[in-house]
Structure formats: C-alpha cells, structure tokens
Amino acid sequence: MQKSIPIADAHCDFLYYMVQNGYSLASVTEHQSLSLERMEQGSVKLQFFAAWVDPSGRISCLQQALDLIDAYWRMLDENERLIPFTRDFSPESGKIATVLAVEGGEAIHGRPENLRLFHKLGVRAMTLTWNATNELASPAMRRGRKGLTPLGREVVGEMCRIGIAPDVAHLNDAGIDELLSIATVPVFASHSNARAVCNHPRSLGDEHIRAIAKQGGVICVNFYPPQLTEKKRASVSDIVKHIAHIAGIAGIGAVGLGSDFDGMSDCPPDMKHSGHFPKLIEALRREGFSEADIRKVAYENLSRYIARFC
Description:
Radius of gyration: 18 Å
CATH superfamily: Metal-dependent hydrolases
Helix content: 25-40%
Number of helices: 11
Order of helices and strands: EHHEHEEHEHEHHEHHEHH
C-alpha cells in the first residue's frame, strides 16, 4: 500500500464564507468545499487561507480584511489540529499547518503602515489586485497595459522588506513584468494556470512562468473550470495538463497546487472538495510522474517557498 502524499494548497476562500455564511470546518453546508474531515481525507497538511476583500462591499476593504483576519484566528482557536505554518513544520506531525494571505491590495487602504500591521497579525502573502483596478495595480480581468502605480511599487518594496510573499495571481501582464523587475524576494502565483493550455486572461504566459521559476518562485495551479479548459466540462485530467506544462517549461520545482476551493462557482465533478486530492495524485501517477516528483508538486515546492516568509 502506497503511503499518502501530503498536500499543500495555496488558495481557498473559506474565510469569506465563514464570516458571511457561517461556514465551520467542523461541518459541511451544501456548497462548502473545505472541512476538517475532508482535509484529513485528502491528506492536506498545509492550507493557505485567503482574506478576500470585496471592492464593492458595503464596508471598507480594510475593515473587511480585519474581520477575515479575526475569523482566521478564531478558526485556529476552535480547531486544535490547525496551527500557523513554521519553517520546522513536519507534515507527519499530526497537525495541519496554515498560512494567512490577503487577496486584493485594496485591503491596506492605500497605506503601507496597514501592510506592516497585517504582517504583525500573521499575514504572509498578498495579491496586489483582485478583479478591479486599485491604488496599487491593474488586474488581469480588465483591459489595460498599465503596470504598478508608484504606491504599488512602494508596497512591493515593503512586502519584500518585512516578509510578505508577493502573489501575482489576478495581476495583469504589465504588472507582473514590473513586479518581477523590482522584487528582491521570489514571487509566486497562488492560483494561476498556464495560458498555453487554456487561453484565459487570468492565466500566465510561458515567459512569466519561466521568469517566476528562475527567481525561485512557484506557480500553483487552480481548479476553476474556465481556467482549466475551453471544453464545456473540466476534469482532474485538465489539472494534470497544466501541471505537466508548467513542469515541462520551468522544471518540476516550479509547480504547486492552489485549488481555489470555496471561491469557485463551479468545480470539476471529480475535484469538488479537499477530500478529492487523492484523485489528483492518482492522475499524476497515471501520467507518469514519479513519486518524488508528485511529492514536490503536491507539497514540497510550496512549503519550501513559503518557509522563506515564516
């Protein structure tokens, strides 16, 4: 019997629905993907939790972020199996390590001092944008060729200085170019796919995949069907195609997983929740990936990357 391979997942939106819909890891509602039981079924040993801020929300993005950060720490208080990730964490410890991230630079309200406070509160990664233009940068989902703003460049410099991982997910191509040119630490993509496999604006071109890998970063493949395939229905095999492409052009050490569970309106039928990760592991085996390479993709690459910031 093969030993289960640990999973590191670079993105989920559980915190938002914990605040808005009362999600709990102890139980599962109709549309919920993450639960403690499912994470255990899927051998999830490292989970990033995104504090996603809604630019169109009724309260300020800063307050939204604080509410979600509070939810993260309440979640850890309520679940003794969950602990903050540290450099010496072992996936054999019996615990599930967690990383707190912010999705959307709107959260800092245009003030680098808020970024520093977020770091004190445990934030270890942040995207500069979500799907709307903000004070820092322009998103992939809007037409435009502008890169980072002067404030965006200042914020990137401060992220690198204090130890918050710069996340290129949702950023447009010009912004990625500029971020790569000024970052003094490796950057990563928490939930971005390969544009060469599926031509979606949120996905990365081969030149950016290579550049991120060259600087020591990792590209984490998400499971959102429109970013996986142009076919009507996606499956676990489409996830494998993106993994294989990124590994093929940037090396096996440059690819990881970033499911986007609880952030998707639709999921592949065979990858609906964290308990289904073993299906992906088996699909990678069928594709011919070695056990050592599967472990890198599933856990080691992302855990090695984020350890720089923890």
